[in-house]
Amino acid sequence: MPTQLKSDSEMVSSIRCVFSDVDGVMTNGEITYGSSGEELKTFHVRDGLGVKLWMRSGHDFCIITARESDAVQRRAQELGIESVHQGRADKLLVATEILAKRNLDWENVCYIGDDLPDLPVMIRSGLAVSPADGAKEVCASADWIMKSEGGRGVVRECLERILRAQGRWENCLASLG
């Protein structure tokens, strides 16, 4: 008997926390250095609103990235993201620590990643998501492959899809004003 596909609503019913990589997800993956050596990153404004709506709906958004960047810390502060883990190559260890502190299980997590270091967390998460331009192995392991590429609104696309499937999108819109 063929495996029956789950609806979005079934897939996201237990999602309460989103973990996201930065380079290749929240940015397009390019690294630019300014003339004085500072690292420059470009973030998509719609991702920012998506994160704010997600957190206003009562859920957590966590950044887990192997690199360290002042730009990431600044963007996280602008959005009110308190759980920012930079310079952490072992993303699985970080994710496990976060789950223990928040008393969550893997089924409560959506992980958005684009490259091979993201796979250990993705394969354990309740929902694994890749940008359209994710690495081949990441796309093969993802439950959802977004239409957007990294840095082009993939976080917003994912969060909106989850919120719609959970029946919370209209409340999020109402919270805007």
Brief description of this entry?
By secondary structure, this protein is an alpha/beta fold. The protein is built from eight helices and eight strands; from the N terminus they run H-E-E-E-H-E-H-E-H-E-H-E-H-E-H-H.
What does the largest sheet look like?
A: 6 strands, parallel
The coarse silhouette is: globular
In CATH, the topology is named: Rossmann fold
Q: Give the averaged pLDDT, no decimals.
A: 95
Classify the helix fraction into a percent range.
Answer: 25-40%
Strand element count:
8
Order the strands across the largest sheet as they lie in space: 5-4-1-6-7-8
Text of the CATH class:
Alpha Beta
Low-confidence stretches: none
What is the correct CATH architecture? 3-Layer(aba) Sandwich
Classify the secondary structure makeup into a structural class. alpha/beta
Query: What would you give as the CATH superfamily?
Result: HAD superfamily/HAD-like
What gap, in angstroms, lies between the N and C termini? 49 Å
Radius of gyration: 16 Å
How do the helices and strands follow one another from N- to C-terminus? HEEEHEHEHEHEHEHH
Number of helices: 8
Count of all domains: 1
SS strand fraction: 5-15%
